[in-house]
Write a structure and sequence with these properties.
Strand 9, helix 3 and strand 10 form a beta-alpha-beta unit. The two termini are 30 Å apart. The longest helix is centred in the middle third of the chain and has 10 residues. The radius of gyration is 17 Å and the shape is globular. It has 2 domains: 88 residues, Elongation Factor Tu (Ef-tu), domain 3; 103 residues, Rossmann fold (3-Layer(aba) Sandwich), CATH 3.40.50.80. Helix 4 runs parallel beside helix 5. It has 244 residues and is of the alpha/beta class. It is built from 5 helices and 16 strands. Bound molecules: flavin-adenine dinucleotide and FE2/S2 (inorganic) cluster.
């Protein structure tokens, strides 16, 4: 983990609730897709955690959804503004050893998959992506996903793609994969255990205090006892998580 002061070089909306922010700094120490960063915001005591959606040696992209006051404040930040950020947090998707990866994203859970897809593409692998949203207007960056994955879209209201959620889609279709990688709402991750029986990884969220392993505030139950989302996670073996 390291602290850096990063400059905002882009901050724009992708749809009515989701924004893309690009930060300038030194990111040579980031190792895995879905490590996360923790941003300090003026007037907020706790930092806000966000997955690394994409990065180069000197730029880092986050994709964030406006939920509460902190993320709302982020939408007002301007190019050239500086942010105090902890980088290199969490483990990320550390097991890239898959020839036929299945990626499953629900809503803003799509964020860490941008970099994961690029990493697979670098190895000549085109992952299968099932990307679910409540309705068609919520999808982001579809051109990128169409170009670089075997893409299936699902919507809860049937306005685009498969009518239903990603778990229903998997249940009702034959998908050839060897490992799965999932990020999205807890009910989706929990239900995946019923339809994806191969080795898989889930990226979890938790309310965070410190963000680097000191406060235990983000602990979740696993078959091996409690583990911290910020330190042992956010990526866990799907089979080890006990959902409450
Ligand atoms: C490891 C990790 C990676 C994340 N990556 C992303 C990402 O790439 N993009 C993104 O949009 N969001 C991501 N989040 C969630 C993001 O941190 C929260 O949405 C954000 O902190 C909310 O801040 P706020 O001040 O706007 O909302 P608050 O006012 O703090 O809360 C508003 C609402 O959001 C809920 N909430 C707040 N924090 C979390 C959280 N950590 N998990 C679940 N619900 C929360 C609250 O219960 C409340 O209902 C991630 C969270 C974690 C732990
Ligand atoms: S947030 Fe403090 S230990 Fe995870």
């Amino acid at each position: 983990m390291e602290k850096q002061i990063l400059e905002i070089i882009e901050n724009r909306s992708l749809n009515k609730a989701v924004y893309k922010m690009v930060l300038k700094g030194d990111f040579k120490n980031i190792k895995n897709p879905d490590e996360f960063i923790n941003i300090s915001l003026k007037n907020f005591y706790l930092r806000r955690p966000f997955s690394v959606a994409d990065y180069t040696l000197d730029t880092l992209t986050i994709i964030y959804k406006v939920l509460g006051e902190g993320t709302k404040e982020m939408t007002n930040l301007k190019i050239g503004d500086k942010l105090d950020v902890l980088i290199g947090l969490g483990n990320g998707f550390y097991d890239m050893n898959s020839q036929k990866p299945l990626l499953i994203a629900g809503g803003i859970g799509i964020a860490p998959f941008i970099n994961l897809i690029k990493e697979f593409n670098k190895e000549g692998i085109r992952p299968t992506l099932i990307y679910g949203e409540q309705t068609k207007d919520n999808f982001i960056l579809l051109d990128f996903f169409k170009d670089n994955t075997n893409l299936y879209l699902t919507t809860d209201d049937g306005s685009l793609g498969y009518f239903g959620n990603s778990v229903d889609f998997i249940r009702n279709n034959i998908i050839d994969y060897d490992k799965f990688y999932a990020c999205g709402p807890i009910p989706m991750l929990k239900s995946l255990n019923n339809v994806c029986t191969k080795i898989g990884y889930v990226s979890l969220e938790a309310r965070m205090g410190c963000g680097f392993g000191a406060c235990m505030g983000c602990s979740i139950k696993t078959v091996d006892g409690y583990k911290r989302v910020c330190k042992e996670g956010p990526v866990f073996l799907a089979s080890e998580v006990i959902y409450e």
